[in-house]
Amino acid sequence: MKKQFEIYILIFITVIFFITFYYSLEANNKNNPNVMLYKTLPTIELTSFNNANLKQVLPIINEDKHYLINIWSSWCVPCRDEHQTLMKLKDKIKIYGINYKDKKSNAVSFLNELGNPFYFTGIDRDGSLAIEIGAYGIPETYVTNSKGLIVFKHVGPLNEKTYLKINEIIK
Amino acid sequence: MKKILFITLLALCVHTQFAQASAERELRIYKNIRCLVCQGQSLNDSNSDFAIDLKKVIKKKIINNQADREIYKYLTERYGDWVLLNPPLKKNTILLWVIPGIFVILGLVVIARRTHLSFKNKDKLRGL
User: Fold this and answer.
1) Could you say which architecture CATH assigns to the domain A34-170?
2) Is the entire prediction scored with pTM above 0.80?
């Protein structure tokens, strides 16, 4: 009787273990880029890329309007890939670019070559603005809604799938 | 003249002491923050761009006299609990903290029973 009880306990513990570890396998324990989703975008002040006196504070609270924030750099290869998508989006949503640790001359020639999708481009010389809004690296894209909440966040280059998703959000 | 020298030295001492304390604090925080773009490294171990930038941000906060708790809050708000190498006790981390305790108790129970049994056996043998 006692032996049987011990065996049951052993089986019970094994099952619990199995279930716990099985679910932990599925769980995303890696850095979760969506921590910031549905939170208000932390307030940042962008200094214009062209004119140091020109500033823009984000998030912009404007009824019925979404804004897109994209962190990019001329030295970042995936940024080149996603540029086309940004060009397609530029007439649908105002895009605020954050030029990340870049040389101005390189950034300018990048935009001259591929087109400028940005309504406003601010500079992030030391990467602190990117950290302020919870970015890991570049490229990274955020869409904020009329209340300044982040309703979309994407780490990595934008593609057709994310393009459709952004379209769906801003419709 | 002597007075001035004394005051300067005193100020220097206080300053170094202060700088040392703040450096120690920095190190302690860096060691408890995960470098999110590296594998299994703390901020202190890593020289990746992300780690260097994050260290600068933290250093600035320390200079601005922000408390450790505020700095950790700033980081978890942006990067989640994953950024901390020492996970906080929360609903979804309770197993992590409770399981080792359960094992210790189970182990103690097993040891207690074993020793109890062996005593009993000895008694039995003596009885024979």
Assistant:
1) 3-Layer(aba) Sandwich (3.40)
2) no
